[in-house]
Amino acid sequence: MIHITETARDAMQGIKTFIPTARKLAYVDALLKVGFNTLDVGSFVSPRVIPQMADTRDVVLGMNLPDNPAEIMVLVVNKRGTEDALRCERVQCLTYPFSISPTFLKRNLNADEPKALGIVKEITELAFPKGRQLVIYLSMALGNPYGDDWSIQMVIDGAEKLYQLGVRRMPLSDILGEATPDTIYKVYEKLIPAFTDVDFGLHLHTKPSLAYPKIEAAWEAGVRSYETVFSGLGGCPTAADEMVGNLSTQSLVQFCDSKKIPLNLNREALDAVMLPVVLG
Predict the structure, then answer these.
(1) Does the predicted TM-score (pTM) go above 0.90?
(2) Which of 158, 10, 4, 167 has its CA nearest to residue 74?
(3) In 188-218, which positions are buried (b, 16+ CB within 10 angstroms) versus exposed (e)?
(4) Domain boundaries, the chain
(5) Adjacent-strand bridge partners of 203
(6) For a Cys staple, 142 with which of 58, 92, 174, 186, CB 3.0–4.6 Å?
(7) Using one digit for the tens of pLDDT, what is the confidence trace for 228-269?
(8) 3-state secondary structure string, 63-93?
(9) What are the tens digits of pLDDT across the range 54-75?
(10) Partner residues linked to 138 by β-bridges
(11) For domain 3-279, is the CATH number 3.30.470.20?
């Protein structure tokens, strides 16, 4: 069995035309019916940075939660956003985009590593006492497209720093879609045995034609948590001038079906998800 996080936030955040809250809710409600383990519905960040997510609180409060809802997750980048998110009882999990790349930290968070780790520490101190979960990304952990130093040991060192802060869920993220299957396998092959109580998931940006061998490499290396977006929409608006789409939900489902990996998903509900509801 695998853990699937559907990242509706990632699908929507790069769309420049503001999506009305009612359309976001229709999209999120449709995804809730599918039965994903975790659903990333938005972010508590400054509207000046990500204007599309300005109504995240309204989305969280307006969702029609089923009897067995997904774990509801939102992204935060500072103390204020964390406090705002924690006021919403429906939010069970917070995520933060840490990175081993100084260039990405500067582009995405206007931070260096000490500042970013300080924010992670602050988030843990606010969230853990309230019983909330944390997912901290290790962005650019599968290679560095900016020319920064990169090695598997640097990934392990970055994971160790988060581990010491109590973090046990750390998806590796390839924001620009440049990771190869070989690199994916080699990184996880070293990382997973080094931290046996950590869930190292995969947040992959990729072209659909290249997805299967990358998923297979991660699976063979022991990865059991994957983040997807319906139809591969979206991307990170701060990572580069041109966004690279996400791993599509359909690609992961097709991979699992081909390998006879059981999925506890409502296939009819999945087929009923309509992107025009969001895009208008």
Answers:
(1) yes
(2) 10
(3) beebbeebeebebbbbbbbeeeebbbbbbbb
(4) 3-279
(5) 173, 227
(6) 174
(7) 999 888 755 544 444 458 899 999 999 999 999 999 999 999
(8) CCCCCCCCEEEEEECCHHHHHHHHCCCCCCE
(9) 999 999 999 999 988 899 999 9
(10) 172
(11) no
